[in-house]
Amino acid sequence: MNVYDSDHIAYILLSLGYNKTDSYESADLIILNTCSIREKAEEKAFSFIGRLNKLKKKKPDLIIGIGGCVAQQEKEKIFTRMPYVNFIFGTHAISHLPDIIKEVKTGAKKVINTKFTSNIHENSNFNSFNSKQAASKFVTIMRGCENYCTYCVVPYVRGKEISRRPDAILKEINLLIDSGVKEITLLGQNVNSYGKKENLCSFPQLLSMVNDLHRIKRLRFTTSHPKDLTDNLITSFKDLDKLCNHIHLPIQSGSNKILKKMNRKYTVENYLNKIDTLRKRCPDIAISSDIIVGFPGESISDFNETISLIKRVEFDGLFVFGYSDRQNVPSSSFSDKLSEKEKNRRLNALLDIQEKYTKKKNSVLVNSVQHVLIEGFSKKQKTKKTSDKFIQWSGRTSSNKIVNFKVENNSKFNDCYKTGNIVEIKIEKAFSNSLAGIPLHE
Ligand code: SF4
User: pTM for this one?
Assistant: First the structure.
């Protein structure tokens, strides 16, 4: 979500006449788009803003703006803590940036806009403005969340749930396709409840409309709340040819007691039923999830239930986070907090268990032929030189696994290998986080 918002901010700045710099030290204007979902991200944001003080002393005309979730949450407190900041804008105020910057440039000392609005300011153009050579792009289909999981700041910093109109979404996707994008990921805090409040179409209907766009090659979505994963949506994986066979379905805990305390509104049994149905209808589907360890009151037996769940599901990938108190959310006042040491112990234990399953799932693909959407050069291949014997590429399978492969430079097949092309790769090796293979033409 922040990447998408940052692209919007960059588009506005470019249209105001600003250009990108290679380093922030040489900038005339610095905007930090912040995230407060985890304690670490917030700490990093404040530490970076702190470093800007030195730069501002050297360059008094430098304009500094803070946006995103931390700005929405802290509001004027940022001015008190960091008086050299010129403006603060909340998660709903991105489209007001031209006015805010104008006010600062015409002499206003401190400008702030953290108001929530009940409508979405539509701008379908900005996403394709900067998407040259991108194989894949995010498209936000809704904003905010009203699920109020007890540990989460999103409803407080992103506001109430609101969905974009399908025609605006399709227009944005068509512009992205015109600029060469091949894969679209529909984005929202809980895409499964898309359109419900506004009585627009359902999420499976929206997926079907996007799937019908001829020039799009692949379609993904994130994030899904398990309670809203409907039978129709599960069937979409079978029916829609462009919908990739991967779903990220955050479980958060394997204990019903903890899920209740988290206000997740589903049980482990509901979740497992949905996993079984997904696998029955779409046997190749890859499933990833999120887990929070060390939620207040998580006993050893709750934690063991989470281990059992991981062993039962055998996720393709798992993101594990240690619980941290976020400001003003209900769980911050819960008793029975765990020590950092114990949270880390549990976190590492889950990562160790999961590693085995990730490797197992990746190993199954060895010797298979995968359709890989090339995303660009691999990490090892920073640039392409004519003297290179091989060019190393990186891409993704439909099941969202990273595949690295190399192609002989200057071979007659070179034209087949470029960002945005889908190529056939025979998988030869499986690692914990990626696969390696050879292009089939060879
Ligand atoms: S559904 Fe996701 S975004 Fe919404 S409150 Fe729960 S964790 Fe936060």
Answer: 0.90
